[in-house]
Amino acid sequence: MSASLRLLKCRLSPLWSAGFTSQLRRNHPVRCLLGGRRLSHTQRAENLRPLEGVRVLDLTRVLAGPFTTMILGDLGAEVIKVERPGAGDETRSWGPPFVGTESAYFLSVNRNKKSISVDLKHPRGANIIQELAAVCDVLVENFLPGKLDLMGLGYEQLSRLNPQLVFCSISGYGQTGPQSQSPGYDSIASAVSGMMHITGPEDGEPVRPGVAMTDLSTGLYAHGAIMAALLHRHKTGRGVHIDCNLLSSQVSCLTHIASNYLNAGMEARRWGTAHGSIVPYQVLELKELKDEPKYKTNKLRVQNRKQLLDILSQRLLQEKTADLLRRFEGSGVPVGPINSIQEVFSDPQVKHNGLKLKMKHPTAGDITVTGPAVRFSSFTPDEPTPPPVIGQHTVQVLRDTLSYSDDIIKTLLDSGVVAQNELS
Questions:
Q1: Could you list the active site residues?
Q2: Other residues' Cβ atoms within 10 Å of the Cβ of residue 199
């Protein structure tokens, strides 16, 4: 254990004593959920975000992990994003398009975060992460299973320093098992999980969804699991290790497709934009369909889907989309246009739901990203902070969170263990 870490433990005393949990609850009632950062009366009473006071150490990159931690940041958590010096998160270079020097991809999932640039391969860099983990509530990582253990940064190692740490591991296939050492990629997991098998034209090849839905669903699962773990910690005073992976997330999302096979032995197939179990009828003045025996029940319509859908398609092609929407309005029939992305962000409901979020980025200038999907009655979202430039908050985090002196920070910067962005 480093000298600085021993000093950190002294600074946190008496929380590190044998009576950790009971003493914590007695003397630090907020610590079980809010990481010891007490909130003022005003913060508690007015516009309190659910994760206000929770500190998250983000060791993830690309999409599933950053999407998880962005949601936590939207809910009020302080998110410290750790990036390697130089390149940082791989998605910083995933363009075009770029906004200034930042990729639009990176900007889409990294708001409300601080960036600290640390060389984890350097022993002193690993020590910094240990010290941060000791004062954080949540750690999220997406390294290959076992890799962090080799650096002294695995769950068992860090939970000894901070028994209340919620440690969320995001991987391709899980922390154990025959494929656990395979790297996780959305497109591969989408194929292995059956998602691609059921996606695409009826008579065409398997298709990858237009966005990385396996990554995104994993991020949503991870976010929910972290919230549950914080609630568990509030009840027990103990942290937990969360094993969240792309394969399990996508297989669980097969829902009725999986149930059809597991219970009825029915293998799935691709239906394009149609549905495997439900076929519509009686629309657009095609009254003859109502009395046609082979379309009387949904079971019969499924059996005769091709002929029925051909009839409906030919009828729909005779009118413009706007006319069809007006015709269906007030009918009780679910209907919606297939919007282009430009049309999505011109949609009145999308605008009303606040799904365009504007920010001022330190190097890219004015940027716009999609806003949070969920609203709460208890608070309105604060003005978001823009996605950080790499290493923008290195000195700030070392000084304010770990209480490093200016001399120590300078030594770390000079040795290349950490890096501070000169533009910030």
A1: 215
A2: 17
